[in-house]
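HUMAN: Forgive my ignorance: could you write out one protein's sequence and backbone structure tokens?

ASSISTANT:
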Amino acid sequence: MNRIILADNQSIFRAGAARVLASEDDMRIVAQCSTTEALFSAVQAFRNSITLFATSLQPDLHAALECLIPAGSKSVLITENHEQIPLDVLAHLSGVLQRGITGQELVQCVRQVGEGKRSVRLPDRDTANSATDLVGTRVRDRLTPREMQIVGLIVQGCKNKEIAQRLGVTEQVVKNYLRSVYDKSGVSDRLELALFTIHHRILAEAAHKAGVHFTAMPERQSA
């Protein structure tokens, strides 16, 4: 049985990854952490586990490895899409995966690491600069500015009430927008929407830019 510690400050991604991994018979989530401090405590409590931790936690990677290695942890680093990792850190990791990884690739990575193999998926620099994601581009172009803003806040883990407060609208208005977003993106709920957005870099970048601005924006007609 692969015991897994999952540490990421992005609650939506953490929940999605936990749901995917927990569905496998040979995997068990023993701890979920949203801070570096909680990660270090979990590593000591569950030694010899597979630890997935994200660079978005902003840990000192060298300090993290100094904690993980003595605890017998097999360390898998979750990077932002196309983020580059220092070679001296990379050498001590059991695995590296990008946040936009599919569920199947996530399971494969963890399983390989559990078998004592390395699973390192480094981004291709040419691919990193390409704009060939037709699905992400199509959804991005169909969403109105307000819809994109709401998608950005969903990815941040905001609930409908918080989104309504930030945008100065009612929760029902937020729900109405979400129904439109679900229809345009082909997803059925907010978790699926967040994972879909993270997986499509072009859409994720647009949602991030929109989600950090909370002032009223004029609507435009969608395509």
Observations:
- The two ends are 49 Å apart (CA to CA).
- Confidence is low (pLDDT under 50) at residues 125-131, 215-223.
- Strands lie at 2-7, 27-33, 50-54, 74-79, 95-98, 119-120.
